[in-house]
Structures are given as C-alpha cells and as structure tokens.
Design brief:
By secondary structure, the chain is an alpha/beta fold. The chain contains 6 helices and 16 strands. The protein has a 7-stranded mixed sheet. Strands 1-2-3-4-5 form a 5-stranded mixed sheet, with no helix packed on it. The chain has a two-stranded antiparallel ribbon with strand order 6-7. Helix 1 runs parallel beside helix 2. It starts with 8 loop residues before the first strand and ends with a strand.
C-alpha cells in the first residue's frame, strides 16, 4: 500500500542505498538500506539538495549542510500540519508512508458513529495521534521520550486539534499499559508503533523480536467491550507481513473480527516509478 494525498512530500529518486526527498521546499538525501538498485541519476549532485546524511564507519552519522535551509519547517498532509526537523540518526520527525494508516484510521473512526478512545503506544511525534484526534477520537499518546511527546503537542496545535482531545504521557509503554489494566481503563482502539530496538526512560531494554508478541498480548487486555481496531507497525526487515498477520491472529483473533498485514511503501516520482518499501503494518478490525 502506497501513501497518497501528499503534495508537500515526494521521493525524487532512489538507489545506491539512498533516497532523495523533497519536504515542501527543502531537499534531503538520506540513507535507505532497501534501495539496493542503481539510481536513475546522481542523487548527490542534485542541484537543489540542501543536506545529506552521511553514515559514519564507526556507527551513527551526521548531517552535511550543502545549501541554506531552516532548522525546522512545516509540511501538510490534507488538513494536518506537521513540523519537520533533521535530527540524529537520519530522522526528520515524520514517517510520510504512514499516511496510508492515517487515512485508514480516520475512515474507521468517522464511520464508527460514536466517540472512539484511542491508545497510541510508542507514539513518537504524533502523526497517528493527530490524525485520529482530527477525525473525532480522544487519544492517549504515550512515548518514553519527552521531546517526542512535546513535538506531538506542537503538531496537534499546528493542526488545530482541541487541547482536550489528546492526553500526553511520558512513560515506558509496557509499564503504562500494565497500570492502565489494573486501573480498569479501556480503549476502543490501540496503535502500536514499536522501534526495532530501544530503551525506556529507566533503561528498560526493548528488542522487537523478543518483546513484541508478549507486548501485544498485554495490550489486548486494554480493549473495551466494543472495540474498533488494533494497528501494529514494524520497520524491522526480518519481520515480514505474514509474521505480523500471525501475531494478530494469535492475539486479537481470539476475540473475532478480521485481520490483515501489508507492506507500506512510497512511490518514487522519477521515470522508473519504483516503490520504496518502508516496513509493514498489520490491522485487526472487530466485527468485520
């Protein structure tokens, strides 16, 4: 599934382990290990290129500024507005391919005919949170990094989301979910966007291959008696859509509904029009 309705973002070219992107009026070249084909043209020589992220042989990397550019700027997707800022480890604070899932969730929320309470775990800068809240849901946004939660608040404000639609939580996701279950707090929809590897605020270790299944089992117990959906994303190359679909079947499938998993991608706007894979997602829907 490829993201649609972007005017402020596009991939201009890809190959040689990199992708050339336009973020509104700023042009960035970032590493992408999936782009193992040769590029259609020399991406590094693109005349409008503002910055390139260069990996270090010892790990990590740094941005090389080539032309003047703002420290941060705004991009729009449909009625939503997000801040973009080149950060450490090649990130920009937004995953544009997730517009596929933003649209799916907005459609389900608007079609529910009732107010939907959403729990967004590993919520990052809030793309999914803002999308769901703008569609009428109430969202609890959880991430272990305070800076990312603060950025979600900024994105919500830029998108005109009312302040009472989002609850912001800085916490380890698994610990927060456990406490919510004990408190009897339930949600109609859950979103899980875990990293491949990470640490919580108190050094808690997360490795997706070891921890995702148990985490999904735990999260299932936060669902209300009238749930709507559960969405899980994976950017880990080794976890194919079939793996994600199996996880949904084993965890959420026991309460009925339907489930599916799919690759998520972005189509390059060069003459070849290749689709750059950007991980996979799995969606469980109740009563479908």
């Amino acid at each position: 599934m490829t993201a649609q309705d972007w005017t402020d973002y596009e991939i201009l070219g890809s190959g040689g382990g990199e992708k050339l992107e336009r973020w509104k009026d700023v042009y960035l070249l970032r590493p992408d290990p999936q782009a193992i084909w040769s590029p259609e043209f020399d991406l590094k020589s693109y005349k409008k290129l503002n910055a390139r992220y260069i990996r270090s042989k010892t790990g990590g990397g740094a941005w090389e500024r080539l032309r003047p550019m703002p420290e941060q700027w705004q991009v729009e997707w449909k009625e939503l507005t997000f801040l973009v800022k080149p950060m450490g480890f090649k990130h920009t604070g937004l995953f544009p391919e997730q517009a596929v899932n933003w649209q799916l969730m907005q459609d389900m929320i608007k079609g529910a005919g009732r107010e939907i309470n959403v729990l967004n775990l590993f919520g990052y800068t809030g793309g999914a949170t803002v999308a769901c809240a703008s569609a009428g849901a109430k969202v609890t946004h959880v991430d272990a990094a305070k800076a990312m939660v603060d950025r979600c608040r900024q994105n919500a404000n830029l998108s005109g989301v009312a302040g009472d639609r989002i609850r912001y939580i800085v916490d380890d996701c698994a610990k927060f979910v456990s406490r919510e279950i004990k408190r009897g707090k339930r949600y109609d929809a859950v979103i899980m966007d875990p990293p491949s590897y990470g640490r919580g605020p108190n050094g808690e270790l997360w490795k997706i291959e070891d921890d995702l299944f148990g985490f999904m089992q735990l999260v299932k117990d936060t669902l209300s008696d009238n749930p709507l959906f559960a969405l899980v994303n994976s950017y880990t190359t080794g976890l194919q859509p079939t793996v994600i679909d199996n996880l949904l079947s084993v965890t959420f499938g026991c309460i009925g509904g339907s489930h599916t998993a799919y690759e998520v991608g972005l189509k390059t706007s060069d003459k070849r029009g290749v689709v750059l894979p950007c991980g996979c997602s799995g969606l469980w829907r109740a009563g479908v």
